[in-house]
Amino acid sequence: LVQTLKLPALPSARLVREFVAQNNAAQIKHVIQILSQEFALSQHPHSRKGGLIGLAACSIALGKDSGLYLKELIEPVLTCFNDADSRLRYYACEALYNIVKVARGSVLPHFNVLFDGLSKLSADPDPNVKSGSELLDRLLKDIVTESNKFDLVGFIPLLRERIYSNNQYARQFIISWILVLESVPDINLLDYLPEILDGLFQILGDNSKEIRKMCEVALGEFLKEIKKNPSSVKFAEMANILVIHCQASDDLIQLTAMCWMREFIQLAGRVMLPYSSGILTAVLPCLSYDDRKKSIKEVANVCNQGLMKLVIPEDDETDEGKQSPSLQTEPEEESLSQQEGAPGGCLETSSEPSLSSASVLTASSSERVPVTLNLDGIVQVLDCHLHDTATGMMTRIAVLKWLYHLYMKTPRKMFRHTDSLFPILLRTLSDESDEVILKDLEVLAEIASSPAGQTEGPGLCDGSDTRSSQSELHVPIKASQLSSSGVKGMECSPATPTMNSYFYKFMINLLKRFSTERKLLETRGAFIIRQLCLLLNAENIFHSMADILLREEDLKFASTMVHTLNTILLTSSELFQLRNQLKDLKTPESRNLFCCLYRSWCHNPVTTVSLCFLTQNYKHAYDLIQKFGDLEVTVDFLTEVDKLVQLIECPIFTYLRLQLLDVKNNPYLIRALYGLLMLLPQSSAFQLLSHRLQCVPNPELLQTTDSTKSTLGFKKATAANIDYLELLQHFERVQNKHLEVRHQRAGRGEPPDRRVVL
Questions:
Q1: What is the DSSP string of 155-211?
Q2: Which residues contact residue 23 at a Cβ distance below 8 angstroms, ignoring those fewer than 6 apart?
Q3: Is residue 527 part of a domain?
Q4: What angle do CA 129, 134, 139 make, to 5 degrees?
Q5: Which of 209, 245, 380, 702 is 20 to 30 Å from 628 at the Cα level?
Q6: Cut 0.90: pTM above it
């Protein structure tokens, strides 16, 4: 038989036909075995070529029966795919083409080995071999498309392995097969997308434009299928893959992954919540991209806003209530819709369970399934971005929006993280961007006012936390000093339902930051305090700050801070109501506030006078000015008097200027203004105040007698039930302390305050 097959093609075909006619399967196998062992696998190239031709001829001779011998026919041919001679590889490709063409659907059980061999030939350096492999590839694709017996489950492991090839031709081959399999209605490749999605995104970064385009098309087809059949999509298994590629350095990969993430968030909803920390790690940095990556930035913004909307009040359930399918929303948490409107290196890709749990409807099922909010991971990522000095402005704003949103939706669980977040939130007040500071203040204000922040039992006022904070501000702890201020119920955070135990802590630490960072106080101090007055209760802010400053040991800072607060009080439109409240002192609350402010305002003599002007305590203002003769007059002091004169000419003090027309009932106002005039040197402010006083009618009436005690001004002071003598004595004590400190600084060789040279 071997001698007969010296020229294998025609004799082997004739012999096989005879054996088929005789139904002699053993002889057929014997012929194929000889062609394989003696020829196709021979050491001589011509013998191998003859063997390949003979095997193809056998397949043709077998016809429909070739399927019974495919294993014996295919294996030697595939072995020749690795031959060093390109002509032999071409003949092997041609032989396999003929074998497959005859067998058609019968080759499908051997698809994996055929695919494996073809994937190697697709990257063959010889153009003829590559051309032959393409013909074979098209034939095999036609067979798979026509058949309904393709074993997708068995093929996926091979596809998952080969999809990570770095060869361009192999990648092109892989993508072409994925596109074919996607197009076959009976093959549901979507079920196995998690197995190959990572490899697809890697191919998307190929240097070849053609391969990138093919991969884009394949991913686009998958995304269309996902939108059509979201209920059958394994979103959770692909979430972390998208998180990784959303951080890719390649723009196309990043944009495509971000678009997928946007669709996943929209379609899967709260199923994506366990992966929130990883998603935020990928999305947040993109929000600070410039116009060169505008598309990525826009999609990332949609992802960020969509993910934020998935956090609901039910995520704030207590641990005991985890089994409850729903939780009533607290009224305070609904206010987010009024304040947080339309959109505006800590990789966490795991879905670790946390304490938060809620049962909600998902896109993939009509049943209620538990979904976990990984709050700890989210806070860790947000905190990391705030600490990173390289974080862009828009990213910082988004981080602060997230924190605000979480405090609104899950306040009880967020307050577990407040102590760790508080320092970085305070440091963020030094940010260069006003918008960042505004968002930061919103978060701090929410922390300071949320009912969830109210500690049980003794508040921060009585606890060691506040005492340590006060000590950082050089505040004495003696209770006698607290009570001596005469402020009822205001030693700690103001007793109002909108404030919690964090409010006073916030005020203490804010003043501490102003004390240690004077540039912040100079450039942003007024801006920060004004915004806080809009976000929180202005009276509480001034009351608490005045109370803290009363016990401040750094007297120079106390004087500067009082001056800043006074300027805000007198000039800011945000404090219009507070000024009106102080103007008349009609209520016990307003008188209490005046006394509290007055005691701290005593750190700065001129601001104390201006407070008396604001509250229409003109007699006391005159008494204070009389004391100025005992003070050490400096250039800074006269500058403040100059500014007060300018302020008197502003609309804020219109009522005061009009009261100059009523000389009889306001003699101490006129005396106080003349007192200021006498303090000033011959300057523009002197001329301004002098001209104003010249407009006062009937100057003869300035002479007062004891009967003037019945004037309106005195009646008002008496009706206010305020111990002005005690306040005046307090003023003297505070100013004596300032004098003592200045002398101590001078003794240590520190630069003294600027003095007037007379």
A1: HHHHHHHHTT---HHHHHHHHHHHHHHHH-TT--GGGGHHHHHHHHHHHTT-S-HHH
A2: none
A3: no
A4: 130
A5: 702
A6: no
Indicate the residue type of 225.
E
When pLDDT is averaged across residues 223-247 and rounded to a whole number, the result is: 95
Alpha-carbon dihedral sign for residues 513, 517, 518, 522: negative
Radius of gyration of the chain (CA): 43
Q: Where a domain ends, among 150, 166, 184?
A: 150
SS3 category, 442: helix
> Has residue 58 been placed in a domain?
yes
Q: Report how many domains make up the chain.
A: 3
Work out the pLDDT band at 11, boundaries 50, 70, 90.
low
Answer yes or no: is pLDDT of 744 > 90.
Answer: no
Report pLDDT for 299.
Answer: 97
Please check whether residue 83 lies inside any domain of the structure: yes
Tokens at residue 83, please? 């031959």
Residues spanned by the domain of 659: 604-697+721-749
Helix (H) or strand (E) holding 594: helix 588-601
Q: Give which of 176, 95, 112, 180 is closest to 145, Cα–Cα.
A: 180
Please indicate whether residue 712 or residue 124 has the higher confidence score (pLDDT).
Answer: 124
Per-residue pLDDT of 62-82, as tens digits, reads 888 888 999 999 999 999 999
Structure tokens at 544: 């608490």
More confident residue, 482 or 392: 392
- Domain CATH code at residue 417: 1.25.10
What digits encode the pLDDT tens for the residues 286-328? 999 999 999 999 999 999 999 999 999 999 875 544 433 333 3
HEC string of 76-128? HHHHHCCCCCHHHHHHHHHHHHHHHHHHHHHHHHHHHHHHHHHHHHCCCCCHH
Q: Which of 412, 436, 452 is the last residue of a domain?
A: 452
The residue whose two tokens read 């008097």 is 641
Over residues 96-120, the mean pLDDT reads: 93
d(CA 385, CA 398): 10
**DSSP H/E element including 130:** helix 127-146
Question: What sign results for the dihedral spanned by CA atoms 80, 85, 89, 94?
Answer: negative
